[in-house]
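Supplementary Note 3. Input sequence used for the single-chain structure prediction.
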Amino acid sequence: MNRLAMLLAQITRVALPAALALALAACGSGGDASQPDLATAPLAGAAIGGDFTLSDKDGKPVRWSDFAGQWRIVYFGYTFCPDVCPVDAAAIGQGLRAFEKEQPELGAKVTPIFVTVDPERDTAEVVGEFAANFHPRMVGLTGTPEQVAAAAKAFVVWFDKGEPTENGGYLVNHTNQTVLFDPDGKPIALLPTDMGGKAVGEEIAKWVR
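The predicted structure, written as discrete structure tokens, is reproduced below.
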């Protein structure tokens, strides 16, 4: 069993049953009056996000504008990350699946996006396979170092390649924020991936309409 498979097995065994059993109390009908006004959202007006050109799992160009009309969950990480990235990606997938279970039509309007900060190792195929492990609609994106750096800058993400180890590997230090964007591509709120899938699902339900 490879490293990713072992991590997935451990994450799924601990967190997935609880996420699948989740009943989202915050989920009412779409556009519920109990939902807060988007103008009051925590990240309303923040300068986060912007156009980019990256590549999907098939090597085809993908731009930020391609997701117009969709709510978007954006996370920057890398597939060789030993712990944080797979845990965060799992929480995103679990939270979105729980929301989809309660609100199928609204859930279908949410697209999770995983952007690598390690294009040297994360080829289109590698990042695409990684993303699909956490949600069937999670889009894995990579690009040239310049394209990735430009996208990270637009989304206010910091990353830095660490020193090589004896076996030639390396870590990439990076910001691990998970941001929910509205259909116009405007930032709405941070999703609490550090608190698990249940909390992520509840936060999605709070804003998506």
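The domain at 3-20+54-163+170-207 is CATH 3.40.30.10 (Glutaredoxin). The first helix runs from residue 3 to 20.
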